[in-house]
Amino acid sequence: MKVIVCIKQVPETTEVKINPETNTLIREGVASIINPFDMYAIEEAIRLKERYGVQTFVITMGPPQAESALREALSMGIDEAIHLSDKAFAGSDTWATSLVLAKAIEKIGNYDLIICGKQASDGDTAQVGPGIATHLNLPQATYVRKIDSIDGKNKIMRVERLLEDGYEILEVFLPALITVVKEINEPRLPSLRGKLRAKKQAISVWAHTDLGLKEEEVGLSGSPTQVVKIFTPPPRPKGAIFEGEPEECVDKLVEKLKTHIL
Amino acid sequence: MKDRGIKVIKEKCVGCGLCIKVCPFSAIVLEDKLAVIDLSKCNLCGACKDACKFGAIEIFKPQIVDTGVIKDYKGVWVFIEEEEGKIAGVSFELLGKARELAKDLNSEVVGIYLGYNLKEKIPILFRKGADKVIVVDKPELKVFISENYANVIVYLIEKYKPEVFLAGATTAGRSLVSRIAVKVHAGLTADCTGLEIDKERRLLIQTRPAFGGNIMAQIITPNHRPQMATVRHKVMKELEESSSSVGEVIEENLDGEFIDQRVRFIDFIKEEGYKVNLADADIIVSGGRGLGAPDNFKLIRELAEVLGAAVGASRAAVDSGWIPYSHQVGQTGRTVSPKIYIACGISGQIQHLVGMQSSKIIVAINKDPEAPIFKVANYGIVGDLFKIVPLLTQKFKEILKR
């Protein structure tokens, strides 16, 4: 069996600060990390490797510096990494991104399961996972909180999906794509041996030509959506903060909230 | 690719660096006192062009091609989502918004309603803003399976050609429309908090938070139809129910070919013990590390009960095992935007704030006056939550007579 994990490198948002003068994000010196949800995807693939002996791949589409995200996944225990890096990919929206990832998965070939994080912490769309599944004509299970079982012989996987008010049990035929939530596992730290191995390992780099894609099918020109404007939201008005005797504070607060609640 | 790009006019650039500060993608650096734009990072958003006082930045974007094909697309469609056999609140909110959009487009609002035994629930859609409802009523559609629903809706889109397609940014909505958008080659924008129409170009201007709400982006889909968006709960206003429930019902009778045999629904297990789910809640009461111990969540539950609110939690509380993950609000949990969000014993780290800062009213209760949660709070009490929360519960009990 072959399992492919798709990851994205994102800014570590804990360190994102707003410049009070220009009211914009300060991005200098902000570290890049693997999207938090993708860490669970990587961990789940490694657990499947330990449980079923599957072969594991990690892929990412991103600029040259995204290589460090792939090396981190390797150091955790993923077998192979492929970097989809090409100037032509820049500015891809979720449509074009899922196309590029789908083509790369096709090129790896013979896959049984694709795992993505639920969504990326910078874009928050949750669209790329299902998008890849659709480009590849695969069934999907989104928001997976548990893989109950994989029947390798009949190629059936049973999963639990986290919904708004409970969870759903679904059976999906492989090959399939799943997106995972935090509840599914706890990602491990890389071992020293893993780190050493990851440092030396060769990573293939594929451009649009390697994927049989035309330049106009990817990047900005392959993207149906266009960002026309970016602005910072108006700051929240300064609040009324009460201090002192709890009774008095509570009375004041209730007075303020009353009209909104009744 | 060639017809889009960005250029710094060297003669005009003075190397002031204003553009560097405003670039949300860190795509600009200064080299020899000239702004240089890294095209692999640039998204042509135009923030630098607006900031430049010297008119030194030029952006090329293709003219919108108003082909005949695009003109064929008419109508504002709303995906009607079901939740345990009832129409989800977000669908009514979307019908309300669709009414506005349809007015600007001089067009009609169409509800897209899939499921089983729907007949009795159709009239309310007309009272809430729909002109037409396209119904596909089949036993196979009783349970929502994204593949099956996507297959049916792709068929409907190809047949009727809507100009705009909206769905709630719910787990079902996002899983569904991402598939549809790829199949019909449409542009799709996630989790919008603002929608308006550029009347002249008949474009849907979609506003959505990015980078956890620290930045807002406006997005359009110039050359593809339908223009698709998922929309955040509780942001759009549903209409007052009108008395007229007249409208056209179009029943589509599809055969079984839209069923994807590769996915099988086995069971749904409802989470017990909580009456209101986070996404639907008008009020959310959340607890954090300040509660100190799992048993203390009962203070939060009691207040929530009185207010008819849902119970949320910070990551710290979830990671400590005090409450299930499904209650986690924030970056690695859920994003919520209720009318009132009451944070008790939550310090307000950025990862939590990005999940709730679009709430209309934020109330913070924390013993640390320096806690970042107070920076986003409309109202706050600095003090001991173990005293304050029970007092609040008591007060509201009296007022609400519960």
What labels describe this entry?
heterodimer; A: 262 residues; alpha/beta; Rossmann fold; 9-stranded mixed beta sheet; 15 strands; 31% strand; B: alpha/beta; Alpha-Beta Plaits; 3 domains; 7-stranded parallel beta sheet; 5-stranded parallel beta sheet
Written overview of the protein:
The complex is a heterodimer of chains A (262) and B (402). Chain A has 262 residues and is α/β, with parallel strands linked by helices. Chain A has a single domain, classed as HUPs (Rossmann fold). Helices cover 29% and strands 31% of the residues of chain A. Chain A has a nine-stranded mixed beta sheet with strand order 11-10-9-12-8-1-6-7-13, sandwiched between helices. Chain A has a two-stranded antiparallel sheet with strand order 2-5. In chain A, strands 3-4 form a two-stranded antiparallel ribbon. The mean pLDDT of chain A is 92. Chain B is of the alpha/beta class and 402 residues long. In chain B, α11 links the parallel β21 and β22.
